[in-house]
Amino acid sequence: MAELKRVLGFWTILSLAIASIMGTGLFFGVSIAANYSGNASIIAWAVLTLIAVYISTFFAELSSAYPKAGGIYEFSKHAYSRFFSFMIGWLAWIVGNLTTALVVAAAIDYLMPSSAFWLKIIISVSFIILLNIIAYIGIETSGIVVVMIAALSIGVVASVVVPGAFHIDFSNYFPFFTLGTASIFISIFYIAESFFGWESATYLAEETEEPEKTIPKAIVWGTVIVGAMGILVAVVSLGVIPWKSLVSSSAPLSLVSEKAFGNLGMLAVNIGIFIALIGSAAGEIITLPRLILALARDKLFISQFSEIHPRFKTPYKAIIFQTIVALAAFGMVFGRYKALLSLLLPLGLLLYIFVVLSVPVLRIKEPSVQRGFKVPFAGAGSAIIIALILGIMSLWLLNEANALGILKLGLSLIFVGIPIYFLLEIYYNPDAIIAINDSLAYATLLTEKIILPKSIRKEILALLGDVRGKKVLEFGCSVGTLTLHLAEAVNPNGRVYATDLSRRDLLITKKRLIKRGHNHVIVIHDEHQVNRVHPSIPHVDAIVSIGMMGYLQDVKKVLREMRDLLPYGGKIVFVDYADFFKVIPNVAWLSNDKVIEKMFRDAGFSVFVTRKRGMLWNYVYVYGIKFHENIPYV
After folding, report:
1. Is the entire prediction scored with pTM above 0.85?
2. CATH number where 265 lies
3. Each residue's pLDDT tens digit, 225-266
4. What are the residues whose beta carbons fall under 8 Å from the beta carbon of 189, sequence distance 6 or more?
5. Nearest residue to 586 via CA among 270, 302, 320, 198
6. Is residue 325 very low, low, confident or very high in pLDDT (cuts 50, 70, 90)?
7. Neighbours of 381 (CB within 10 A)
8. Which of these three, 322, 356, 387, is where a domain ends?
9. Is residue 634 part of a domain?
10. Is residue 115 over pLDDT 70?
């Protein structure tokens, strides 16, 4: 099986850290911060830089201790429960997608503030697709692109700051404090996005040489460099352009570059800023599929997304999926920079609270794990940082009229992850399957006409044929929806063995059978049904199973055991649910009819595979017979 390729060195990871951390705030944040605190926004940049550098040390310690693809999710997996680690991974994925959309939208606005809507859309979509193609064909190519963009980004900032310094009018800095101390912290909230992206470098741990050393150093130095650039841009911009004039511009560095270079120079700088912002988007686009990969490995995302391309050594299916999501996210938020920024900021800050908190938690929980880097004063420091973040968010909530509504929208995006988690657990986790089936037993009974319509039941019985007086195994009887029909079909001279992994489902089944007087049905609880056929089942004439194929953990073993129970010519009828709610993909082996046929053939069955459309899902039928070993399969 193909694996990720370790080829990235310190300079590539440092470049990625700079490109990812350096969000839109460096180019738009000067005017936004000045709008809230005037010239005192310079203090906001300085304070934020100190906070950001300290937070980067938390990422440095965590990445030195847990250098695996998945970054934030990997840290959380060790610090918190399975559910909370998924939710944090889900939140990180939302933040990453919103950041990508924000940065691409900002880049286009900087380059073409008044151009045609469709032209902006075409250019933005083209860049998103191009960057994803680069991510698809190999991490080495992606690394080269990121290094070039990071160098260009630093060059663009220098090209504005250095000449701009000679145009500073020191009178522009006065009066300095005009809008109060609290306004500085509100400015910090709005420019915090300038440092979002520490997690991007951590996602590439399995493609980095000596990641436990390389990534921590790159994250801290990347933050220092971005912080220094942010302070310099703020000082020069506010010195060249009075803050009241600066806040009216959607592209503040354009005003500075125009004063330093004229119109032609301003255009060149704008092009450079556009490329720098696209580079920031590239950081997210290249790294986010690794988060999906890590979640998929742990069956907390669609398992197919954990596959690595045999040639390019990239998580290619995750990249294709991420491309579609990135395009969809961009389409929904295009042209709404300020609204998107307000949505992204509280979600990002919540994410970093959990990251900061995980350091003291893991020092207590896993003290023996080797840490190549340690956060200074982690206990008290984490408490101070979390208190600062919560305080800044509180000021935002109190001072912005629509802040509460934006926060509710953000939280609703997070809560979408809860049903997704449980659906994934139903698909992949045997213990969760049992627990959820138990809890939903009566709901299943009430909705059995929807889950297994009468038309499907009739088809199953028709495929089984005449089973009067015969023995039938129902592998996964649920609440007895089909069991009652099977009991009537075999009549009292036959026998039905009904097994299931849910005790509560079986209690319902037994009550229904007793009520109908079907004493020739033997009900068997088997909590290990996803891996076997219960050993007490005798030889039978036919086997029927509804909705169990997707749950099987060892498909080949279960099919071999079923084959051993049947005579030659013994029938099987399997029906399973596919394209669940027309959104959730199938278990990998159920997605391809040829794979299903081969799986059953290798186990000794000659089968047909058909699919039928349903309202909320589709149905996969697998039916046939056990064939004789000495008769060639046709």
Report:
1. no
2. 1.20.1740.10
3. 999 999 999 999 999 999 988 888 767 887 888 887 777 777
4. 345, 392, 393, 395, 396
5. 302
6. confident
7. 18
8. 387
9. no
10. no
